[in-house]
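Propose amino acids for all 442 sites.
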C-alpha cells in the first residue's frame, strides 16, 4: 500500500468556537452505530474520542474497531474538515442589519466564485466541507438552479437560532449557540502562475452569516457568543442597504419602480449596527475604545440595481473589473483593476456621505482601510407575491452584479490573484507545519 503523506499544521483553529489547539489534540468522530450520545452535543450524535489505534491507511479506529472519517474540535466537539489540518484559515465576517440582503449576497457571491475563479484566475474554489456549506448550497440552488425559471423564489431570513447555529452544552441544560461557518478552499490550479505551489498556497475561506439581530446592541451574550469571530477576522464586511434608509428611499421615488421603496418597508439605524460591530471588535481584540480596527473594512452597498441611478453617468458596475491574462509559458493569471474599483468606491462614499452622513462618519472613524463596493445579488427588482405577501424573484431575471468584487479585491492584496504578495500585513490564521517555516501569500 502506498504511503500517504500530508503536510499538517502544528495548530488548528476551530471555525465554530474559535479555539486554537495542537493537531495531535484533534478528536475523531466514532463510526460504529452503537457509539452515540456525545455529552456536549446530543444523544443522537456519535461520540468524539482521542484515538489510540489507527488503520494502516491512517484512519482512527473507534473502540469497536470501525474506521472513522470525521474530525472534531476538542473543545466544542463540532466537526471540522480535514482541510483545516493542512491549510491556513482566513475569516471574513459579514455584518448587517436585519433584511439588508446578507444571505442573498453570500449565495450569489459563492455561486459566481465557483464559476469565475477557475475561468478568470485559474483558482479552484470548492466546498471545504459540503455538510458545513449545506445551507448556502441550498440557497445557490434556489436562486440559480431552478427547473422552472418562472417560479417565484426567495431566501428565508437568517434567524437568531436554528439550522445556521450549532448548540453545545458545556454545562448541562445550558446550551451555547455558535454560528455555523461556511468553509471553502481556494487553491491555485495547474495552469495558475503559482500552480507548482498549490500544496502550500491553498487556504480555507471561512464566512459567517449571522442574523442581523445579533448585531443590535445587547444581543451578544455568554450563551450566544455569535459574533466573537469578529476579532479573529482578517476582513470585515459591513452590508449597507440604502433602501432601509428613509432618505435614500425618498430620493429614489419617481426614478425607479421597486416595491422595496414602499413606505411600509422597515428602516434601521445602520450606523448603530456598524458602531456595535466596531465596539465588539475592539472589546474582543483588547483595543482601546477609540482605536481604529486593524482589519480592512469593506462596505458592501447592496441592491445597486435599485439605487444605481444615483451614480454619475458613465460609471460602469455591470461589467467585472477584472480579466484573465495568458503568460508566455502557458500559465494564466488574473488581474483586478483596483484603480477602477477604488474610483467607484470614492463615488459611492460621496453618495452615502450626502444621504447618510452619520453612517459615513462611523465608517471613516472605524478603520484605516475602507472600500465601498456597490453590489446587486439578483440584478433586478423583486416582485411582491400576493399569496404570501413576501418579496420574491424569478430565477430567469437574476443577474448578479459585482458580488465577487469585495472578495477578489481583498484576494488581490494578499497575492492569491495576481501571484505576488502586495501587502503582507494581512496574513491568514495559520499554524506552522512540522519542520517547515510558514509560507507567505502566493
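Proposal:
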Amino acid at each position: 500500500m502506498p504511503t500517504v503523506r500530508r503536510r499538517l499544521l502544528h495548530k488548528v483553529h476551530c471555525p465554530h468556537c474559535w479555539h486554537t489547539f495542537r493537531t495531535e489534540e484533534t478528536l475523531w468522530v466514532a463510526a460504529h452505530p452503537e457509539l452515540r450520545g456525545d455529552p456536549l452535543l446530543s444523544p443522537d450524535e456519535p461520540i468524539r474520542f482521542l484515538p489510540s489505534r489507527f488503520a494502516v491507511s491512517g484512519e482512527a479506529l473507534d473502540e469497536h474497531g470501525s474506521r472513522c472519517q470525521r474530525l472534531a474540535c476538542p473543545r466544542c466537539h463540532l466537526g471540522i474538515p480535514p482541510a483545516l489540518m493542512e491549510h491556513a484559515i482566513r475569516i471574513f465576517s459579514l455584518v448587517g442589519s436585519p433584511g439588508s440582503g446578507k444571505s442573498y449576497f453570500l449565495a450569489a457571491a459563492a455561486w459566481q466564485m465557483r464559476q469565475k475563479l477557475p475561468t478568470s484566475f485559474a483558482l479552484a474554489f470548492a466546498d471545504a466541507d459540503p455538510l458545513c456549506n449545506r445551507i448556502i448550497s441550498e440557497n445557490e440552488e434556489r436562486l440559480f438552479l431552478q427547473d422552472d425559471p418562472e417560479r417565484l423564489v426567495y431566501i428565508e431570513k437568517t434567524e437568531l437560532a436554528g439550522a445556521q447555529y450549532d448548540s453545545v452544552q458545556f454545562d448541562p441544560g445550558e446550551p451555547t449557540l455558535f454560528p455555523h461557518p461556511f468553509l471553502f478552499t481556494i487553491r491555485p490550479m495547474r495552469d495558475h502562475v503559482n500552480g507548482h505551489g498549490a500544496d502550500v498556497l491553498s487556504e480555507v475561506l471561512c464566512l459567517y452569516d449571522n442574523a442581523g439581530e445579533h448585531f443590535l446592541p445587547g444581543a451578544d451574550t455568554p450563551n450566544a457568543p455569535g459574533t466573537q469571530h469578529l476579532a479573529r477576522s482578517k476582513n470585515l464586511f459591513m452590508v449597507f442597504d440604502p433602501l432601509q434608509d428613509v432618505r435614500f428611499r425618498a430620493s429614489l421615488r419617481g426614478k425607479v419602480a421597486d416595491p422595496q421603496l414602499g413606505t411600509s418597508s422597515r428602516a434601521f439605524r445602520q450606523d448603530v449596527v456598524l458602531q456595535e460591530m466596531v465596539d465588539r471588535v475592539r472589546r474582543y481584540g483588547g483595543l482601546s475604545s477609540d482605536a481604529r480596527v486593524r482589519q480592512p473594512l469593506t462596505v458592501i452597498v447592496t441592491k445597486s440595481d435599485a439605487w444605481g441611478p444615483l451614480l454619475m453617468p458613465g460609471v460602469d458596475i455591470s461589467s467585472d473589473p477584472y480579466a484573465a491574462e495568458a503568460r508566455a509559458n502557458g500559465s494564466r493569471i488574473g488581474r483586478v483593476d483596483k484603480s477602477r474599483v477604488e474610483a467607484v468606491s470614492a463615488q459611492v462614499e460621496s453618495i452615502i456621505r450626502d444621504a447618510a452622513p452619520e453612517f459615513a462618519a462611523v465608517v471613516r472613524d472605524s478603520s484605516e482601510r475602507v472600500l465601498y463596493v456597490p453590489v446587486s445579488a439578483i440584478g433586478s427588482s423583486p416582485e411582491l407575491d400576493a399569496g404570501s405577501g413576501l418579496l420574491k424573484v424569478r430565477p430567469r431575471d437574476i443577474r448578479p452584479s459585482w458580488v465577487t468584487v469585495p472578495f477578489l479585491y481583498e484576494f488581490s492584496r494578499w497575492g492569491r490573484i495576481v501571484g505576488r504578495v502586495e501587502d503582507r500585513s494581512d496574513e491568514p490564521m495559520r499554524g506552522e507545519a512540522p519542520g517547515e517555516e510558514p509560507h507567505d501569500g502566493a
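The longest helix spans residues 102-121. The mean pLDDT is 86.
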